[in-house]
Each structure stands twice: as C-alpha cells, then as structure tokens.
Design a protein that fits this description.
The complex is a heterodimer. Chain A is α/β, with parallel strands linked by helices. Chain A is built from eight helices and ten strands. Chain A has a six-stranded mixed sheet with strand order 6-7-8-3-9-10, with helices on both faces. Chain A has a four-stranded antiparallel sheet with strand order 2-1-4-5, covered by helices on one side. In chain A, a hairpin with a 2-residue loop joins strand 4 and strand 5. In chain A, helix 2 crosses helix 3. Chain A starts with a strand and ends in an 8-residue tail after the last helix. The C terminus of chain A is likely disordered. By secondary structure, chain B is mainly alpha-helical. Chain B has one domain. Chain B contains eleven helices and one strand; from the N terminus they run αααααααααααβ. The C terminus of chain B is likely disordered. The chains are: A alpha/beta, B mainly alpha. Chains A and B meet through strand 1, strand 2, strand 6, helix 2 and helix 4 of A and helix 1, helix 4 and strand 1 of B.
Chain lengths: ~250, ~260
C-alpha cells in the first residue's frame, strides 16, 4: 500500500538574485494513511518549498517525492489530494458556489454528483448561507472556509494545508480545528504546516520539524516532547539548538 | 478538454462582471454617434464614411480589449495566489495557457461581433449597404487575427507583469501593423546587410495586413477567393499555435515567488 506522501532525500536548489540557495538538503519522511501530521519549522526552513514540490509547482533537484506512490511531477498524482494555500485568495468576481462548481469540474465531477458535493462541502464548512454571495464580499475567515471547501470538493484522501489557521481569529481557528478533526474521523490524511503550535499539539498525531532545509525531528508529540514540556518549548529548543532563529 | 473549457468559462465570467467591455462598448457607441454628425457638414456617401471609421474603431477597441484582458490573466492568477489551488488540481500548465487563451479569444471575438452588429445597424440606418460575403470574410479574418494577438499577449504575460506584458504587446502590435507592410519599400532604399536584415524581418514578423479586409468592404471590392481566405486562416492558426507553444514553454517551468531553478 503506497504512502499518501513519501519523500526521499529531497533536494531543492534555487537561484535567488543570482545567488545559489539550497532550500532543501536531502529531506526524507513518510506520511501514513489516516494520520494528521504537522509540518513545522521557522520561516525559511523549507516547509512551503516542500509543499510546493509535492504539488508540482516547483521542480526538485535531487531525491524523490511521491503522492500515493506516484511521482509528484505527474498530473494524475494530484487527483486524490485537496490543497489549501497559505493565503487563500480567490476569484472575487465569482460566487462561492460557482468557485466550488468550477473546482469540481476540474476534477471531472459533473451533474447531480457535483451539486451534491457542492452542498456537502458548503455544509461542512458552514457556508450555505453565503454560497450565493460574491467572494469579494467575504471576510478573511469566510475566505479560509471557502478555500477549505474547494480543497474538499473532490473528497480527497489527502489534504495538504499550508498555514490553515494563519490570520484567523480564535473562532476561526476553532472552526478549522473542528474541520481537521472531522476529516481525521473520516479516515482522511491531513498534512499541514503551521506556526500555531498549540493547534498542532491539539490535532496532530505526528510532527515533522525542519530547520534550514533539513529534517531535525520526526515523531509523535508524546515521543518528542518531555512530560511537562510544551511543543512550543521543544520547538524553540530544536530551532535554537544550532543557532537557528525561533519564530514567535 | 473539460479543464480548458472550465478555465475559459472563468475568463468569460470575469469579462462579464468587470467593467472593461461595457466601457469599450459605451466608447464605441459615443464615437459612432459623434461620427453621425458628419452629415451636417454635407459629406457625400456618409454611410461609407461611417463604415470606414467604424471599422477602424472596432479594430482599435477590440485589440485594446484583447490585449488588456489577455495580459492580466496569468499575472493576476499569480498575484492573487489563485494559481496555487488551480495547479494543485489535475490541471496542467498547458491546459491553463490554452484555457486562458480560449476564454480571452472567444470573449474578444464575441465583443467584436456585437460591435460589428452595432456598426452595421448604424450604416443601414443611414441608407448604406454592405457586401454580405465580404463582411463575413472580414469578420472571420479579424477573429483569427484576434486569436494571434491574444496568443502573443499571453506568451508575453507568461513571464511578465500585467503592465509590462500589455505595454510590450501594444508596442509590438503597433509596430507589426505599421512597419511590416512598409518593409518592401524600405528594402528598396537599403543595400547589403541592412537589406538582408529587413528581408529576414519581413518573413519573420506576422503579416497582419493579410487579415485586413476593411478597404475591400468599404470600397465594395467584394469577397476574396476562398482559397486565399483559407490560406490566411491557416496562416493565422499556425501563428496562434506557435505563440501558444512559446507561452507554454515560458510558463511550464516557471517558479512562483521562489527565484529561478538551477
């Protein structure tokens, strides 16, 4: 049975302003089916680059990355995933339900099934009443929820969420936590990056910690964090261990 | 193909819900109504005069529409960040390019047809007549030309910002419109390397004048032979395909926000 995410010795080098930057220096990890995995690290650690590689936005320079056993560079590798970007902006000239119909059609869903899926995801994220409004009129929290809805439209087996609670108020964070918990109950695999370590502690089975393009820790929160210590303390210790910069 | 059509549909929704088209349509109506006043100066054949200037206006306005609308598609996707959830779906960059082009082209052509209908109504109201077959050929060749212009603009926008792509495209379209038909004359004044360079340019640059049937329509010279019409259409399709491929080649390995891959 292939892993939802499998990354082996992944390397990514970029030229930024004429200078060579190694964003990933041989990172390896696997994400098991049905698990909720937090992908942590300070800014510039390589989290978003890893996610962008998994989604095929960025080419890697070494190693391998697979989704459900398929090379991430193949278009079909993305058929079983849902993705919520870091700043979920959307087409402001579309209505919420139009965005969802469009997203569904891109997965080849149509007709009655599409209608049912749209209603289902709108209900799941609590956006039925705003579905006919233009996205341009949505608040930040609503934008996040419609972003989650479009990520769920294909009933994905793997959800990749980039900072899903970033910029949300406590109510929005709670709603997002509930959605992730529901997805976990449904047996979905959730892989998300976050700086909100208390959220990670609440919902994740495992965490992967990156620092300067390298994996520095991986495991269950109970395995990594000593009794009486918080994930935040552990994170700061790990990030600062070799002169890294902790993110508040 | 579904993905291409879905993406083209989004472009259409954008055009209908933003103001560009309506502004241009109002401008066309206002300018045409202004042209109607030429009658007060006692000009003969006012309907032919109206047709001539109206066709020129339609050319200019639909090129403005096609360029401004196409130039912003890809840069806006990136600026908004909507390109990320889009490409995270089973949508290839080639489908994205093709869908954007299809949406922009069909939207520009539809707007142009509306402009044509309006102009014809005005011309007929002033007692003028237009050769139906020549009109169909004129509109069809213009539609093909809009496809070429949209493809060039899209190719530029694959690596440029909206403003840069639109400006470069306008300059390029203007240069091609004005320079290419004059190159044979210029060749007569040059010798040696300059002459050869001009000839190379002449054969390399697109020939928009081939798509221009305005004079035939205005001066009632009639339709062109279907064989010639067919060849021009094929030429337009080849140009469009070439620039779309160029756009795809520029876009297929483009990194978003993260520098250039080594």
């Amino acid at each position: 049975m292939p892993f939802p995410i499998e990354v082996e010795s992944l390397k990514a080098d970029f030229k930024v302003g004429g200078e060579r930057v190694s964003a990933l220096k041989g990172v390896s990890f696997r994400v098991e089916e049905g698990s909720v995995v937090g992908f942590l690290g300070p800014n510039g650690a390589g989290k978003t680059t890893s996610i962008h590689i998994l989604l095929g936005f960025v080419d890697f320079t070494g190693g391998a990355a697979r989704l459900f056993g398929e090379d991430v560079r193949r278009q079909s590798a993305r058929s079983r995933i849902g993705y919520l970007p870091e700043h979920p902006e959307s087409y402001r000239f579309l209505r919420g339900e139009e965005l969802l119909r469009m997203s569904g059609r891109l997965f080849g869903i149509k007709g009655k099934e599409l209608r049912n899926r749209v209603e289902g995801v709108l209900e799941r994220v609590g956006m039925q009443s705003a579905a006919r409004r233009f996205i341009g009129t949505y608040s930040r929290g609503m934008m996040q929820r419609i972003g989650v809805a479009q990520a769920l439209i294909n009933d994905p087996d793997l959800l990749i969420l980039d900072e899903p609670t970033g910029g949300l108020d406590p109510v929005g964070r709670l709603a997002m936590r509930d959605i992730i918990a529901e997805l976990k109950q449904d047996g979905k695999t959730v892989f998300f990056s976050s700086h909100e370590l208390s959220e990670v502690e609440r919902v994740c089975d495992r965490v992967i910690l990156l620092r300067a393009g390298e994996k520095v820790a991986e495991g269950g929160i109970d395995e990594l964090v000593a009794p009486g210590e918080s994930l935040e303390q552990y994170f700061i210790e790990q990030v600062c261990a070799s002169g890294g910069r902790a993110v508040q | 193909m579904t993905a291409v059509l879905v993406l083209a549909g989004v472009v259409w929704r954008e055009m209908l819900r933003k103001k560009d088209l309506y502004v241009l349509a109002l401008l066309l109506v206002a300018l045409t109504l202004l042209l109607l006043t030429v009658d007060t100066f006692g000009a003969k054949n006012v309907s032919r005069y109206l047709l001539d200037l109206g066709l020129l206006l339609i050319w200019l306005l639909s090129i403005v529409l096609a360029v401004t609308f196409t130039a912003r598609q890809i840069p806006e996707e990136e600026k908004r960040g909507t390109v990320f959830p889009l490409l995270a779906k089973p949508v290839s960059r080639w489908q994205l390019i093709l869908g954007k082009w299809l949406g922009c082209w069909t939207a520009s052509v539809s707007a142009t047809i509306l402009f044509f209908v309006f102009l014809l109504a005005v011309v007929y109201l002033r007692g003028g007549e237009v050769d139906g077959l020549a009109l169909i050929q004129c509109a069809a060749l213009y539609a093909v030309l809009l496809g070429v212009i949209a493809a060039i603009t899209l190719a530029l926008s694959a690596r440029m910002t909206y403003g840069a792509a639109a400006t470069t495209s306008f300059v390029l379209q203007g240069a091609v419109f004005m320079l290419v038909p004059r190159i044979p004359t210029l060749v007569g004044y040059e010798q040696g390397l300059r002459r050869s360079a001009l000839m190379v340019l002449y054969y390399l640059l697109p020939h928009y004048e081939l798509f221009d049937m305005r004079r035939r329509l205005v001066h009632e010279w009639g339709a062109i032979p279907w064989s010639a019409f067919g060849l021009i259409v094929v030429y337009g399709i080849v140009l469009t395909a070439f620039f779309l491929l160029l756009g795809w080649a520029a876009y297929r390995r483009k990194l978003f926000r993260r520098g250039e891959a080594l």
